[in-house]
Design brief:
This protein is an alpha+beta fold. About 15% of the residues lie in helices and about 20% in strands. It contains 3 helices and 5 strands, in the order ββαβααββ. A 5-stranded mixed β-sheet has the order 2-1-5-3-4. The protein is globular. The mean pLDDT is about 95. Its cofactor is [2Fe-2S] cluster. Belongs to the adrenodoxin/putidaredoxin family. Keywords: 2Fe-2S, Iron, Iron-sulfur, Metal-binding. This is Ferredoxin family 2Fe-2S iron-sulfur cluster binding protein.
């Protein structure tokens, strides 16, 4: 099974099983990782904001305009920021590393 790593706010790295077809948000919830996801993946908030490790960012599909609009509202926005609900696990993403931002802001929704 593919794996991915969440880097928690305190720097702790947690490698978890990452079933194909699940979003990063769903994988986080399955393993008790502290990502809110207030709108449950409907692109109406930015609370599932994650910062993708730069070495992985280029392997992701480009964000949609709707995702970019929501990211504009995210707290602690970085160059490699994405919404966890929009990142779907594939074989190509086996080993993906994402960091949790310093905090979240529930704007919208």
């Amino acid at each position: 099974m593919p794996k991915m790593t969440f880097v928690e706010r305190d720097g702790t790295r947690r490698e978890v099983d990452a079933p194909l077809g699940l979003s990063v948000l769903e994988i986080a919830h399955k393993h008790g990782v502290d990502i809110e996801g207030a709108c449950e993946g409907s692109l109406a908030c930015s609370t599932c904001h994650v910062i993708v490790d730069p070495s992985w960012f280029g392997k992701l599909a480009a964000p949609t305009e709707d995702e970019e609009d929501m990211l504009d509202l995210a707290f602690d926005l970085q160059e490699t920021s994405r919404l966890g609900c929009q990142l779907i696990m594939t074989e190509a993403l086996d080993g993906l590393v994402v960091k949790l931002p310093a905090g979240t802001r529930n704007a919208g929704g």
